[in-house]
Amino acid sequence: MWEYIPFENCLEKTKIKFKLPKKDYKESGKYPVVSQEESLISGYHDNISYIFKVTKPIVVFGDHTLALKYIDFDFIVGADGVKILQPVEEINTKYFYYVLKALVPKTTGYARHYKLLKKLDIPVPPLAEQERIVAKLDAAFAEIDSAINVSEIQIKNSFTIFENCVRQNFDVNIVNSEIKKLSEISTYFNGLTYSPKDVSEEGTIVLRSSNIQNGRMHFDDIVRVKKDIKEKLIVLPNDILICSRNGSKRLIGKCSLIGIQEEPMTFGTFMMVVRSEFNHYLQWFFQSNFFKEQISQGQNTTINQITRYMLDEVKLPIPDISIQNKISKQLSEIDSNVRQVNKLQTQKISELLKLKAAILSQELQPSEAA
User: What is the residue-wise DSSP string for 315-364?
Assistant: First the structure.
């Protein structure tokens, strides 16, 4: 017999004694840090006194991010926004996790979302039925996740192939080329500073890091401002847009040629624009390790930001125009092929995720036999 139990009645009381500030996360250490971020592990720390002991499995919920994680190991609670959900004895934790995956809304913007969980009624069958459902979902999802992993590896490999092609093109084609500083052949500057009160449904589009996806401009997520904007800060079709600062370090340095747009646009203060007659060549240089190694002072060093002073020190080969065109043509063709592969794999992943959602929904429907 299935019951519908109010969300809060499904939980035991838990207490979080310590939350590790994000600035104290380490890249390696003895104990994993679990936060509200999407990834299972957000970092590490070595202080054993910070550990949250897991005596039986729990669910971690991200109050801001809506992330859900099934956790069956000791960990350190990371930063703000973590809610630890410990189901009562009558509810299997993995079953509870799957129910929340099915019932929690995908997004309602940046806010506190725990209040949404409080409104839920959780479908709860007998414990034996919960365990049967969990076993079936685990088996089905293992196969689907394996297929998703194959597609993700193909996407990752395609980017690796592209990066190797960029390096090879520069290695082969820039021999004996003149070396110049970036500052000699281009200008670059940060974008518009604006406040929340400047944001409007009408006005000028402000380009941000989210508008660069895999080296191309995307306009699904736009912000407009009503504010006087200097002519210099209105982007031109051949400008290169670069993410110069971001809370996520892995996004710093991503770039795209802006291209022709249907209306005037500017760009935010955490972005930079590069203007040069060589931009069709520079767009590939900025994606090469020749550039990345210079601004990171070593290939394995994490980049915290890109400043004008850093770009002032960047040196690059400037081959004659025929070689520049050759590099641009070859890499554009390879880039197009890589994108086609990634599009197909991304579509495959999307279909597999839909399949997971359908299986999950079907299994959580009360059956007459139960």
Answer: EEEE--HHHHHHHHHHHHHHHHHHHHHHHHHHHHHHHHHHHHHHHHHHHT
Strands 75-77 and 31-34: parallel
Structural domains in the chain plus CATH codes: 3-124 (3.90.220.20), 127-175+319-365 (1.10.287), 178-318 (3.90.220.20)
Amino acid letter, residue 157: N
Would the CA dihedral through 246, 291, 287, 153 be positive or negative?
negative
CA dihedral 60, 70, 38, 25 (to 10 degrees): 70
Q: What is the pLDDT of residues 282-318, one digit of tens each?
A: 999 998 888 888 887 644 445 678 999 999 999 998 9
Beta strands in 58-149 (DSSP E): 58-62, 68-71, 75-77, 82-87, 121-124
Q: Is the pTM of this model over 0.90?
A: no
User: Percent of the chain scored above 90 by pLDDT?
Assistant: 71
How many other C-beta atoms lie within 10 A of the C-beta of residue 279? Answer: 21
> Distance between the two ends of the chain, CA-based, in angstroms?
6
Mean pLDDT across the stretch 34-58?
95
Residue 355: what pLDDT? 97
Hey, what are 25's tokens?
């996360």
